[in-house]
Amino acid sequence: MNKPVTGCIVTYNNIRTIDNAIKSLYECTKAPFRLFIVDNGSTDGTPEFIEKNYPQATVIRSDANVGFGAGHNSIIDKLDSEYHAIINPDIIIKDDIISQMADYLDNHNDVGMLSPQIKFPDGRPQILGKRNPKLRYLVASRLRKGDEPSKLLREYAMLDEDLSKPVQVENATGCFMFVRTELFKKLGGFDKRYFMYFEDCDLVREINRISKVLLYPDVTVYHEWGRDSKRNSKLKIIHIKSMFSYFIKWNLLRR
Asked: For the whole model, what pTM was predicted?
């Protein structure tokens, strides 16, 4: 696979995790790869650390925290790749999953985006939504206690389906998405109405209207997944606002 791939990480005070994320990407990726880092006004030294230790990365600084989607959208005009990876600053890869996902898209022209298998750093699978968000799913997720998912969460995450092979999904996490660059540009990136949260659900839904989004379980991404909105009241409010924006856009409030 010699087609160029780009990737983008949006950072905001991610000095604790960013080194492992970038290091793993550069060490494992064999395909021609250019990494953009969009920093949303970090005050913990994140951009300075990246510029010093990873001069091959393209760092773009924002004076303010413009949000997840807007940060990723800011580099769309700079993308000259065949495929593009949307990456969280708290992920690690252990294999050349970039090349593997690019090879899959090379051979499946009807697929617009791939979502890898997501696990915690210790190898436990993360229970993430794969069906379109519904209020009952979100409430079940918010109220979940312990490791065993409820019946609703099993339904939301399609745990009773065969997920051992590529399968089309309605929803995928924004912690790592692998998309055709041309398609990402055609859609204008993430919808601007979301500051953070639900922009990934929204993008998947948009892509599925004109192409396919697949869960691709042959590759794995390890994600720390802090679930910050459960502990931070400000983020919880942002999460709720984004939820209503999503439900209103897709006319889901009466369903």
From this structure: 0.94
